[in-house]
Amino acid sequence: MTYKILLAGNPNVGKSTVFNALTGMKQHTGNWSGKTVETAAGYYKHNNNYYNIIDLPGTTSLCTDSRDERAALNAILKTDYQCIVIVADACALQKNLYLIIQILEFCNNAVLCLNMAEQAKKQNIIINKDILSKELGIPVVMTEARKKHGLEELKDTISSAVQGEIKSSSFELHYDDYTEKHIEEISSLLSDKDKKRGTAIHMIENTSGKENDIYSYSEDISRKIAAERIRFSEEVYKKSVQTGNTNYNKKRITADKIICSRFPGILIMLLLFAFIIFLTIIGANYPSEWLSFLFSELGKNFRNILENTNIPDNVISFIVDGVYLTLTTVISVMLPPMAIFFPLFTILEDLGYLPRVAFILDNFFKKSGTNGKQGLTTLMGFGCNSCGITGCRIIGCDRQRSIAILTNNFVPCNGRFPTLICIVSIFFVGSFPFVTRSFISSLFLTAIIIFSIMISLSVSKLLSVTLFKTKNSSFILELPEYRIPQIGKTLIRSVIDKTAVVLGRAVIVAAPAGAVIWLLTNIHIYDKPLTDYITSFLAPAAQLMGLDGVILTAFILGFPANEIVLPIILMLYTSNSIIEETGSFTQIFDILSANGWNIKTALCTVLFTLMHFPCSTSCITVKKETGSMKMCILAFIIPTICGIICCVLANIIMSLIGF
Amino acid sequence: MDNKYFDLSKLTAGHSGIVISLPKDRIFRQRLLSFGLNSGCRITALFSAPFGDTAAYSFKDTVLALRSSDSAQIIISEDNYDL
Question: Most exposed residue of A198, A256, A392, A519, measured as fewest CB within 10 angstroms of its CB?
Answer without folding.
Answer: A519
